[in-house]
Amino acid sequence: MDGVNALTMADLPNPAPTMTDLLNPEPSSVEPEVPSSVGERDRAARDGEDNEYKESEPPEHSGDFDFNDDEELELELENGPSDVEVVDASPQPTPPSLVDLFGLDSEQFMEEQQKVSWIKVLLALLEDGALPLDPFLKGRIVGLAPKHLVVNGLLMRYVHVPANVGPARTVTVPVVPVPYVETVLHFCHRDLLSSHLGLTKTIEKVRRHAYWPGWRKDVAEFVRECAKCGGGKGPRPWTSGRMQRMPVADLTGPFSLLAVDAVGPLPETERGNKYILVFVDYFTRWAEAFAVAALDSITFVDAMVNGVVARHGVPSRLLSDNGRNFTSEVAKAFYQTLGIRKLFGAAYHPQTQGLVERFNGSLIGMQRMHVDEAQTDWDVYLPRVLFAYRSAFHEALDDSPFFSLYGRDPVLPLDVAFLKLGKKWKSNEVAQCRRELYEGL
């Protein structure tokens, strides 16, 4: 990442910082949460969504393995009769920081799973075919078994992911014990690679990376009480209902229609940047954004060539307003050379470019969660905030822009912590690996 790669050996503290420090320029310690007075504020003021998340799944999710009655069932099992000794499931000593997931090894996580009675019984059934003697517990566990599997000793749960752009798929997520719930919530909402996503996006991110009984209610409460979301995200600058849909029936694939716009002027950064040049693909909703010092035609063409064409190829069509940087002779020569068909939105009517205007609002709202009081470091956070947007659920796709473009989900720090550490990995070995990674930068 750009912020990480900018480090030099002289910048590295001793002892080596944690991976959380690597991924987040801000301190890794969790601030105490203060309940927000916003309450049930419409999440359109949070991230531009239209409606708050409903507890029931939408119709297209009807094939999901993730049902509320299963959550109630598992909660019953924790308090119901059992022929297995129930170990005290109260929080045990955890790593020094709940959000330093790279201090976690797989054996430690498996030990925490074994402390939950229903998980222990279900693991015994899936691994050894052992059934509990108690009829109540037996019936419940047998009902849960088809929705779970064991991977390297960890209990996992099937989650069905529908999609409009790509194929639907089934993923597996770890069943998370209570001591690590706060960790999951942090990395799916407050972490820089999530950038305080709104309620629906946070719910979908948790849904695709972890599971525990009652997780939806926990996520909703966590987002609702987030102090930064309550105080940092303002209302949209436009009136609801003015945005218009661009006809997309003739889209042939990714980057067949690309929209470009500019945000700014913003507070000038230490690197001299005052604007953000934004490109959004209509097919996949993939966004590129570049911090620039000026909005002249040369800057636009340079960003287009190096940031878009060199990464994704030449777009078929490009939609913009009538700004001089998009209509100059330099820009026209660029379009003609690459065979790009140029489209223009109506002057002084940003609703004709609703997709990119909507993204601009989301981008500024996410940036606001991390910048300093002087707002002169926003360009440092831009690449990671972009990743948060690209890897987040998008309602128009029923998936993320990342999956829609690449056909796979990104591997997140959360995935690495829960799934990629074999039994041979211990916390001290991971710490040594962190130091070696730093020294190799």
UniProtKB/TrEMBL annotation:
SUPFAM superfamilies, per the entry: Ribonuclease H-like
Biased composition (Low complexity): 25-38
Domain of life according to the entry: Eukaryota
Disordered, as annotated region: 1-69
Composition bias, Basic and acidic residues: 39-64
One BP annotation, GO: DNA integration
Domain Integrase catalytic stretches: 250-409
PROSITE patterns in the record: INTEGRASE
InterPro entries: Integrase_cat-core, Integrase_H2C2, Retrovirus_Pol_polyprotein, RNaseH-like_sf, RNaseH_sf
PANTHER family, per database record: INTEGRASE CATALYTIC DOMAIN-CONTAINING PROTEIN, PROTEIN CBG26694
Protein name in UniProt: Integrase catalytic domain-containing protein
Species, as recorded: Phytophthora fragariae
